[in-house]
C-alpha cells in the first residue's frame, strides 16, 4: 500500500508541475524604442542626482542627444547630456549607456565603456 501511495504522489507531482512551471514569453525580447531610451536615461540621471553622484545642476539639463553604437554584445544606445553649469570641464557631459533591450549598462562623464 505504501508503494501505491508513493507512486500516486509522484504521479500527481509530475502532472501538476507542468502548469505550475509554465509561463509565457519564450520569444526573443524586442529592442526598445528611442522614446523608451530617452525615458530610461532620464530616470538614470534623476537617480544619480538623488543619490548625489552628480551635482544638483544636472536637474536643469533636459533632452539628451541619442545615438547608437556597436559594442561587443550588440548595439548600445548612448544618451549624452551637456551641462553648461558644470564647474569642472571634465564633468560637463554625462553619458548614459543602455543596451538594445533597455538594460542600463553604465553612466559616466567620459563617454567610454
From TrEMBL:
The keyword Signal applies. It holds the Pfam family DUF6488. Residues 1-22 form the signal peptide. Keywords: Signal. InterPro entries: DUF6488. This is DUF6488 family protein. It comes from Spartinivicinus poritis.
Amino acid at each position: 500500500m505504501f508503494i501505491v501511495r508513493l507512486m500516486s504522489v509522484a504521479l500527481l507531482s509530475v502532472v501538476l508541475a507542468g502548469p505550475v512551471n509554465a509561463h509565457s514569453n519564450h520569444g526573443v525580447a524586442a529592442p526598445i524604442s528611442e522614446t523608451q531610451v530617452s525615458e530610461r536615461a532620464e530616470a538614470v540621471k534623476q537617480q544619480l542626482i538623488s543619490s548625489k553622484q552628480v551635482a544638483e545642476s544636472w536637474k536643469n539639463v533636459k533632452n539628451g542627444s541619442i545615438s547608437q553604437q556597436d559594442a561587443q554584445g550588440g548595439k548600445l544606445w548612448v544618451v549624452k547630456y551637456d551641462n553648461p553649469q558644470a564647474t569642472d570641464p571634465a564633468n560637463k557631459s554625462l553619458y548614459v549607456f543602455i543596451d538594445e533591450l533597455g538594460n542600463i549598462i553604465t553612466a559616466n562623464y567620459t563617454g567610454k565603456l
